[in-house]
Amino acid sequence: MGGLGLREVWRFAARGITANRMRSSLTVLGVLIGVSSVIVLTAVGNGSALAVKQGIEKLGTNSILVMSSGGAGRFSRSSNSNAKGLTIADAKALNDPATAPDVKMAAPILNASGTCTYGNLSSTPQNITGTWASYFEASNSPIDKGYYWSNDDVVAGRPVVIIGTTVATDLFGTDSPLNEVIRCKGQSVTVVGVMKSKGSTGGFQDADSIVIAPITFVQRSMSGYGSLSQIQVEATNASTTTAAMDEVTTIMSAQHKIKAGANADYRVLNQASILASSTTSSHTLTVLLAAIAAISLLVGGIGITNIMLVSVTERTREIGIRKAIGAPKSAILTQFLIEAMLLSLMGGISGVALGVGISHFTVLGVKPVVSLTSVLLAFIVSALVGLIFGGWPANRAASLRPIEALRYE
Amino acid sequence: MSQFAPPVVKIEGITKVFGQGETAVHALRGVSLEIEQGEFVAIMGASGSGKTTLMNILGCLDIPTEGDYWIRNLNVADLDEEQLSVVRSQLIGFVFQSFNLIPRTSAAQNVELPLAYQGVSLSERRKRALAALESVGLGDRGRHEPQELSGGQQQRVAIARALVTNPAMVLADEPTGALDTQSTKEILELLHKINAMGSTVIVITHEEEVARAARRMIRLRDGQVVEDTKWVA
Fold it and tell me: What is the ipTM of this complex?
């Protein structure tokens, strides 16, 4: 465009845009909605992915879970006659530092179900869990009030419990439950501690609806001496989790006399595998949301094409004049492209502002996490939208024959 | 005005046909002309005589169906679109009946525009645009937009815009067609003045009064030259 200069280009574009303000602002609005929805929806996708990830991480990244594969917990025997349930002996074997150097600790878990009452209030926890004191560390369960019961309590089978916040609220409201005696499954137990709330993990499970008691007490008074529900194992740190899983598998196969290659009657899971599958599904969600948003950006782009076609038609005569006084094709093309890009950038900038603004609020129960990439991408794409969708009308304008353009009324 | 300079315009056997077959209209039927540097030519003819078609071809806005056209030794048929835009920019200045200024753009910016398309720097552009406006007597109207000027003033801005690039010829298509008697007189004086300064001026008109201002009159009828008279003013 030679010495056409910014001022002239700017003036041309500004004249086109201000010629019909309502029309221009509606076009800008189209791009604005597209760009802001790209930002907000990807932020919502990212936010929900992060929430799921954090929920899983709360369970502990070093955690390994050993479960019976013949059916869940105490029902395993009935569903698979060859399968041997998990036992206290298995849990003890996993705590051997000689054969399992990467295992920090392993705790048996025996879940019972039942209702707890205090006075005329009641609460039905998702699990009444019997375990060892080491479980608290293995399961990443910090305590809020009171104290953990100890291994002495396990040995003696004392009726002491730690309760989750949901149970505490159900039975005591805002009062302190410490040292109060409640009845669980008909047994009188003393509350010695309240766990910190774990919050929702994104699933249907309420991690705070739990009562934890010494396993010896649960066996004696509630569930009997059947097989365990699962064994909670903690690796020494995140990087040794894989090694620890191998050690657990070796020990468990020895314990259950599983021959190499035969189907095991237990499963070893860890958070990483759960995390991986949930990350995949939340990534899919993000892509899906981004795709929806991209469509609305496309619609915004078509709006630009439409308005530029109108602008070209309205200015046909002017194009003719410009060509007659020596405007080369490139100058006309540039001027219309700048006009289209200005429109789309106005939409892009305000769309980024709106999108980032909306993302400060909780959307659909998710705290959105704005990624810089999506902001930059949306912005660049909005500029490109002007270039691509404005390109065709601009080229049409530039290719007009001067004589025809001049005759246009 | 050297006798050895090539003619500004040389056309040979130009025809122009619009449409095809039975509906074909022969706007020009073999027109040959030479116009020398510094001439003041009026091309006359009734409506439908082909004079506007001839003007469009001379201005490189349209291409002839047949025949050759040289501007200063440049064969127009050999030029591509980009080169034609350079020819229009550097060799031709247009003045239209309906002024054809760019709306909502100041007089000075209108006059600067052809220079901008040539790539002249902003400061140089300003200087030359002001000089051109002063030469048409509108040195103080540079900031005004077309709708703030009278018809005669708008046409003077258009003449300034045509002059500012120092073209080989100024092509004026019915330049006084939309003006009152007083403005017509002013515009004709202006065309005289710029011709006296050395520019070739070609005026298309159907008004005898305008033609009398020129020093050569070419009359077209039914797409052919029927009269070509030169006189000394």
Answer: 0.90
